Amino acid sequence: MAKLDDLKNDLVAGRRRALAKAITLVESTRPDHQAEAQALLASILCHTGKSIRLGITGTPGVGKSTFIEAFGLSLTAQGHKVAVLAVDPSSSRTGGSILGDKTRMELLSKDPNAFIRPSPSGGTLGGVARRTREAMLLCEAAGYDVVLIETVGVGQSEIAVSEMVDMFLLMLSPGGGDDLQGIKRGIMELADLVIINKADGDLKRAAMRAASDYTSALHLMRPKVDCWTASVVLASALKGEGLDVVWQKIQDFEAAMKDSGTLEQMREAQAKAWMWSEIHDQLMDAFQANYPEKLGQVEAAVGKGQTPATAAARALLKDFLTQGRKISAQGPES
Ligand SMILES: Nc1nc2c(ncn2[C@@H]2O[C@H](COP(=O)(O)OP(=O)(O)O)[C@@H](O)[C@H]2O)c(=O)[nH]1
Ligand SMILES: [Mg+2]
């Protein structure tokens, strides 16, 4: 495994090519690559956890890419190393959410202290989220101290992202209430900070009104953690305004979370929850792969009311577990 050692050393030394290669390894579904990826992750774990992990969401067109470009550049100018990842289960091989907007992040993508990676493509949300979580750890091992994970404001991906980050930013545009922007109450509840973008020109007054509406809405919600109250800030990604206010809020959040011990507790809970979701996914994969035909037949019989659901589940599980015992008695894949 000398090659893997080289990769690890180059990664920890902060070489971007090594980081890109390591993420490709993590994203590969080949069993030998997966084994190498897991060995790599285990070896770099001691170098992880030192970044502030940020999630950002908002409907398409709200200005996420424009904001990340401006915000990322202002952070690298202050000496930070910024990694941008994405969770977008709808992205295809040809155009992930970030790749599609490469033009809007042209300067950041050329910045030696920034690293941008589009969403892993294909697969379930669970699979995309796992690979992004692992990519996040690799970025931390490579010395990135700010990790931003972007997701589009639709579906379940917000929840997946909020479960892997420290702080969740919700970006809204002026005008339009919750329903107009397709922002569900549930997503508001995930937010640690609401950014009203496009607070410039003709939209400035509408942005101020929206800020007071959302501030009232936030007051009605129960805080996610005791040590922090979500608030609303105005920004203009286009003009580069409000970026410093956002960064100050992030630093205040990080300090409050660290001082109260909440950050440590939250990361611990996230890691445990991740393990359980892995167990769940891997069991389901193994279970389904085990019965390519039979499962469909049993399911059909249950659907038609010919077999009780519980009895069918019990019989399948019993069979599956007995097989597992036989396999482990023989030794793995002998
Ligand atoms: N007026 C104004 N327009 C903005 C601002 N930020 C982004 N936009 C514009 O909104 C459109 C969508 O921006 P984009 O960053 O691609 O949004 P995304 O889909 O959320 O990534 C583009 O035409 C941007 O130029 C802003 O702060 N003010
Ligand atoms: Mg975008």
Explain what this protein looks like in three dimensions.
This protein is an alpha/beta fold. It has helices spanning 2-12, 16-27, 31-44, 64-77, 97-100, 106-110, 125-141, 157-162, 185-190, 204-219, 243-259, 262-290, 294-303, 309-330; strands at 52-58, 82-87, 114-116, 146-152, 167-172, 193-196, 231-234. The protein has 2 domains: 49-259, Rossmann fold; 270-330, no CATH class. It is 55% helix and 11% strand. The protein has a 7-stranded parallel β-sheet, sandwiched between helices. Helix 10 (204-219) links the parallel strand 6 and strand 7. Helix 1 (2-12) packs across helix 3 and helix 2 packs across helix 3 (31-44). The longest helix is centred in the C-terminal third of the chain and has 29 residues, at 262-290. It is globular and about 65 Å long. The chain starts with a helix and ends with a helix. The mean pLDDT is 89.
Please report which band the strand proportion falls in: under 5%, 5-15%, 15-25%, 25-35%, 35-45% or over 45%. 5-15%
In order across it, which strands form the biggest sheet?
3-2-4-1-5-6-7
CATH topology of the largest domain: Rossmann fold
**DSSP, total strands:** 7
Level of helix content? 40-55%
**Overall radius of gyration:** 22 Å
| Bound compounds | guanosine-5'-diphosphate, magnesium ion
Mean pLDDT: 89
Would you identify the CATH H-level superfamily of the largest domain? P-loop containing nucleotide triphosphate hydrolases
Number of structural units classed as domains: 2
DSSP helical segment count: 14
Q: Tell me the series of helices and strands, N- to C-terminal.
A: HHHEHEHHEHEHEHEHEHHHH
Q: Which outline best applies?
A: globular
**CATH class identity of the largest domain:** Alpha Beta
Give the terminus-to-terminus CA distance: 23 Å
- As residue ranges, the low-confidence spans are none
Specify the CATH architecture of the largest domain: 3-Layer(aba) Sandwich
In this structure, how is the largest beta sheet organized?
7 strands, parallel
Structural class: alpha/beta
